[in-house]
Amino acid sequence: MSFNLAELAAEEKNRIELDKQAAFLVWKLKQGKAGPEELTKYISSIRSADEQTWFEQCVEKYKRVMGVM
Fold this sequence. Notes:
Elements: H1 10-31, H2 36-45, H3 49-66
Helix pairs in contact: 1-3
């Protein structure tokens, strides 16, 4: 089964993008290419409280998956 991401609502597209950014930032943490301040900076740039919560949940998910503490 395939999905056309272009057909998703803007809110769902944004959630996918936030998930991708969370994965990338946690990967950078693991590789030593960024510090925790980069996560804090990114979270503060998100305007919506719901989106901030979603991003933080995604970060925690990827920290568990990638073994980052």
